[in-house]
Amino acid sequence: MKLILSKSVKVNVSFLILLYIQCSKKLDVMSEKKKVVQVKNPKTGRYVKIDREKGRIVAHKKSDGPFKNVAVARKRS
Hints:
The protein has two domains: 2-31; 36-72, no CATH class. The chain is built from one helix and six strands. The strands form two sheets. A four-stranded mixed β-sheet has the order 5-4-3-6, with no helix packed on it. It has 77 residues and is an alpha+beta fold. The mean pLDDT is 75.
């Protein structure tokens, strides 16, 4: 089944449906909260990883700077 948009442009409808499904899956993944986040410890000035489900510290960083590829927890407003 083809959809004619203009004289020279033809778009395959099944391709559009697949594209929509893939985009919606990516949006679902992006909207989920991460299981592990990081926060800066004000006393030491180092970052700490926290497991959201258990509420416990998973790891602490010995070097300066934040962990790579770990979301930073924000304050609730």
